[in-house]
Specification:
Helix content is about 75%, strand content about 5%. The protein is of the alpha+beta class. The chain folds into two domains: about 210 residues, no CATH class; about 100 residues, Alpha-Beta Plaits (2-Layer Sandwich), CATH 3.30.70.3040. The protein has a four-stranded antiparallel beta sheet with strand order 2-3-1-4. The longest helix is centred in the last third of the chain and has 44 residues.
């Protein structure tokens, strides 16, 4: 009975204080409204600290859930940057018939430049191809001992587009040129990488939808337990005229804090993973002599992850608090 009276007195004091603050705000004191929200937010933070184990478990679950789609989106952004970096390496090589002379091969190259779907066309004679191969392979002495040049003349073409259908259509047209013996499409690996990027994007979106739905249930269940633990206090507040909106405020801040802390921990875990992988990644980049830099894990991406966590936490608490508070009768 004594505990019930203490809860009743505490609830009445809270409602009276809120009414006084509301009256002051009507008189033009906007600072008081901010003070109310500040006090409720601090009280919600204190309640999280008073139950460290359960709060930590909820925060870690939120962090790991947000981390998985964030890593996929970051990976996809880096794949897109790789595609942009190597877009000019998508080439079609036309190997000319051995009967084609240098003047005929040069004419083929010049004629191809009139095609709008071709960005550049460079003729490489058989002699020049042999010289370049000798320098790059280190087999100069072996190649000079051959009685004839085994390499054909070629025309190296850079398409004006990376669209898979357009590049394939261009390849089919080039195969019909009478001077061409066969062609080699060097952009197949880029097409595969582009398809992989599309797949990762779809998987990331599906995973994000599943994760957000799961977080709503997790946060909703956490808020439900908090409401049950404060059922007597809520009943008393309703008896003295407290509205559902007033009662829900602490739980909304609880969900918001869970989301912010979960998003922040996700950013921290993402940074740790990046540091662990950075050494091996730099070695791989040096092997390919590339200027590639990791993207998708900068300040704005980290901030968006925290904001996403905050929105999910607040919305999950909003949906759960009003649903369960309505079920508490004075």
């Amino acid at each position: 009975m004594a505990e019930w009276l203490m809860i009743s007195e505490l609830a009445m004091n809270k409602v009276k204080a809120a009414n006084r603050q509301n009256q002051a705000s009507h008189r033009g004191n906007d600072v008081s409204a901010l003070q109310i929200h500040r006090k409720i937010a601090l009280d919600s933070a204190k309640r999280l600290i008073l139950s460290p184990l359960s709060s930590l478990m909820t925060i870690v679950v939120i962090a790991v859930s947000l981390l998985l789609p964030a890593l996929l989106f970051g990976l996809n952004e880096n794949l897109q940057s790789i595609l942009l970096e190597f877009q000019n390496s998508a080439r079609i090589t036309l190997f000319l018939d051995n009967s084609v002379s240098e003047s005929q091969g040069q004419k083929v190259s010049d004629d191809l430049l009139t095609d709008n779907t071709i960005q550049s066309a460079i003729y490489v004679s058989a002699t020049k191809a042999l010289e370049e191969f000798s320098l790059s392979s280190g087999l100069g002495e072996v190649l000079r001992s051959l009685s004839s040049n085994p390499l054909p003349a070629a025309v190296i073409i850079t398409p004006a587009t990376l669209n898979t259908r357009e590049v394939n259509a261009l390849s089919q047209r080039l195969e019909t040129i009478s001077e061409v013996d066969f062609i080699q499409l060097d952009s197949q690996w880029i097409n595969r990488l582009s398809a992989l990027s599309d797949l990762i994007s779809i998987v990331g979106q599906l995973l994000a939808a599943i994760v957000i739905t799961g977080l709503f249930f997790i946060i909703g269940n956490t808020i439900k337990l908090s409401i049950e633990n404060r059922r007597q206090e809520i009943q008393v507040i309703k008896l003295v005229g407290g509205t559902d909106i007033y009662i829900a405020r602490p739980f909304l801040y609880t969900g918001l804090l869970f989301g912010i802390l979960g998003g922040s921990v996700a950013v921290f875990l993402q940074l740790i993973i990046l540091i662990m992988l950075n050494g091996s990644l730099q070695e791989l980049i040096q092997l390919y002599s590339s200027n590639f830099e990791l993207r998708g894990f900068g300040f704005f991406n980290s901030l968006s992850l925290v904001i996403t966590g905050a929105l999910v936490g607040w919305l999950g608490a909003f949906l759960a608090s009003f649903r369960y508070i309505r079920g508490v009768n004075p």
